[in-house]
Amino acid sequence: MAAITRALRFIHKDAGSIIFLLLVLLVTIAGCRLTQSAFTRTAGNAGSAFAAASTTLTYVHEGKISKAYAASSFVNYTSELDGLDQTLPSQTGVPDAGTLQRLLNLYKPAMEVIHSPCLDESCDWRAQVAALDSASKAFLEVSNS
């Protein structure tokens, strides 16, 4: 019985330490997210959305998802990404004008894909995937994601 009591005390002490370390880690991670500028967060979200759209388009052509599912996904991507070209330049933490212009130049063709994705074989869906991938990569790079 004494051995069980000692073991429980040891576990209790370790559990407290583990919980404390997890809390410190959580606060540290949250602090890093909170210190990101609005531009960095928005660019990272946009890069992720463009990547998801690219995957969706690829998956529909590989038969992994239905056209209906893909179409509804693109409605969501539209609502997330529309107007970004208007709001991005005024956010805190915006990079130099050249970097911003490069992002906006990639944003436009990627948004054409978001608005009119090729969900059948009648068009060049691979070119659309390339446009989405280019935008995703650029936005994620500037967000350091």
Describe, in short, the structure shown.
The protein is mainly α and 145 residues long. 79% of the residues lie in helices and 0% in strands.
SSE topology:
Layout: H1 2-34, H2 38-61, H3 67-81, H4 84-87, H5 97-115, H6 125-143
What this model shows, in words?
The chain has 145 residues and is mostly helical. The chain has two domains: 1-35; 38-143. It has helices spanning 2-34, 38-61, 67-81, 84-87, 97-115, 125-143. Helix 2 (38-61) packs antiparallel against helix 6 (125-143). The longest helix is centred in the first third of the chain and has 33 residues, at 2-34. The protein is elongated. Residues 20-25 have low confidence and may be disordered.
Notable features of this structure?
145 residues; mainly alpha; 2 domains; 6 helices
